[in-house]
What does this fold into?
Amino acid sequence: MAFIFQKLISYVEDIKERNHSSAAALVVIKDNKIVLEHYSGYHSNVPEARPIQENSQFNIASARKSYLGIAVAYALHEGKINSLDDLALKYFDMALLEETTIRHLVTHSHGLHQEEDGKIFREFPAGEGWAYRGINILMITELINRLYGKSFPELLEERVFKPLGFKETHWQTQESEHLVKVIHHPNEPASYTLGHKRDGTESNLHTSARELAIWGNLHLNNGYINGVQIVPSEVIRLAVQVQNPPYKNKDLPPNGLFWYVQDTPALKSEIGERVPKGSYQILGITGPTLLVIPEYNLVVAKMYNKRYNYGGANYLHYLREFSNLVADTFLESSSRVII
It folds into this structure.
């Protein structure tokens, strides 16, 4: 069946070369079966680096927000957070929060930003704009850890990772031959991107392309996999349906709990306009993308290891182009008769 997805493989390889990534991986799950696994390149851009294999673990950077999103959904489902419309001041002692709600914090519509010296300031009134910042991720991470009395990675390990049989998804603090190094500059050797803590406050989540795809498939199936309801369906629904406040500017991207969600196609969305409504996607600065298209019963995970993988003002074009290509490939493949 791999020939059906040759356009996807060629695209992934082309971007790998153009953006000076030393590694690429692509996994496609269709109708709950892995129908394509493609691995190429090496763990680093230095001679004698380890080849990429199915157990190679990539730093997925901001794609880790989908894991935080499910922790928020658990907190809502279990009443530890009463409502997305709870005022953030109920949980945080910060004067700048004003009318900011939990909904604003988890959909990037909060309007807060942080200077290099740590000072927090307001860019725009909560709910009246969209900006991708880091302050809300730290706040929500700390909130979940406080509400559960344990880190959200520990929560997910107990409730999700172990039942799924995950062995390659961890917040890494030590070097390992299975970890893929990150290239910051093409002419400099790649390096490990590790953290000092495993509590979810640092961008050190590593996973294999296969386990990232299975993570997407868990969401596709509303928490039900291999005959077991691993995650309550309501938790998944909360995470991947549109949750942002209504925007006056219709070009702003719709979000679930950190996921980008396809509603009415928006110019500033990372999801292409040809992707069906109800699809959702998460991505990271090092090149990972996880795209789930429920209408096609399809999950696609791709990996790279280059920071600022798309770079510059064209990054939206690349991301939209890839998701459109996935949608087009499925439509093309569905019209063929495979013997």
About this structure: The CA atoms of residues 71 and 155 lie 8 Å apart. The longest strand covers residues 33-41. Residues 2-334 form a domain with the Beta-lactamase fold (CATH 3.40.710.10). The helical segments are 6-18, 65-77, 102-106, 135-148, 152-164, 209-220, 233-240, 315-334.
